[in-house]
């Protein structure tokens, strides 16, 4: 279709990018962005653009990507635990200041002929347009107005976003134990000589530190200065004695947004307005800009708006839901992170990379052989024998208390714990952990499919960490890679291989 007039609600990355692509695809169309904030007003710090996202942006709009890459800052990733560091190389990952990102997108939108309006709040209902793109964020007023079947799930853990006035050498994942509990930072450098510094903790630690009270006392326009000053001391090593910078910084719980429908009438949702995925998979800007590409493609090819919206949703929803599932697993992993601090840093890095089931162990071993090699030695592999990584892991002997096992498939007769659940840290998971406590060990069984196996491995890790009993997980031979990743990551002690049921 060739709309005459398109209105975009929200001047974030997704809205600006959609506006530019629309104008490039249909120069005769009037495209206007309505942003309630000022042109120079933004919240947050740096944004990460991974290699896959850059490839998609290159195909859709190489001019914009070229400037983003030139503006951004490339960095590797490190895990820092107890004075030891594990490093992972990243070929094309860049960090860019959110202000720089928006400035680039604003310039390129205006260059294409998009009209930008700032400082006035608009609603979809009041706009005279053939198509209204609602890119108005996680708190979308458009979604809240109804008709989209929106739902929000709130996470258990707490986090806050802040920044530093200097660039870290690399992205840093670092837990620190305090008198109240464990705080962990995800921090990374970005353009402009600064770094994003995100901190997570669990509710018990948050309350012990008194941050429930400081959160309640922090106004909506303010930053929680008490928390910032405390965290400066907690992460003094990573901060090199420098301060933390706030920008409406307060403790939050992550909100996962899902919608039954992404369009209603002439209005279509884009980015966080339609869906969110936990920040630990670096997804917000990625999803919004990739949504923009798919939406503009659908509008270009479809005969009318309704058909275009249906095609857009059909193309994007499977990708979004897949990423949301990966993000859900990653979120659960981070919310239970303190239980893993007994692992050496290299094994912890392997656990981190395999936490959502998205990074195959053999691929990670090819890109980071030093990390995986150290993790194998810590796990107990002595090096000689087969070159097949999975065989080596599964074939490694185990000593557990007074018992010895020649390899990780030598599962003794153990009580079975059948698990068919969505969340290992739910009340149902609590009950299964309680049943395992005080036994000589458990064999955790369940459905054959891969998602169920990944959940069993998470439950097994919880059983291992909280009870100390010997833990085995049943899985089909076709999922040996996932079972091996679970073994080296400390999620289970043994694995029981079965044939896949008919």
UniProtKB/TrEMBL annotation:
Protein name, UniProt field: FAD-binding domain-containing protein
UniProt domain FAD-binding: residue ranges: 6-324
Record Gene3D superfamilies: 3.30.9.20, FAD/NAD(P)-binding domain
UniProt entry keywords in alphabetical sequence: NAD, Oxidoreductase
Organism taxonomic ancestry: Bacteria, Bacillati, Actinomycetota, Actinomycetes, Pseudonocardiales
Pfam families per the UniProt record, alphabetical: FAD_binding_3 (PF01494)
Transmembrane segments: none
PANTHER family, per database record: 3-(3-HYDROXY-PHENYL)PROPIONATE/3-HYDROXYCINNAMIC ACID HYDROXYLASE, BLR0106 PROTEIN
InterPro entries the record matches: FAD-bd, FAD/NAD-bd_sf, PheA/TfdB_FAD_monoxygenase
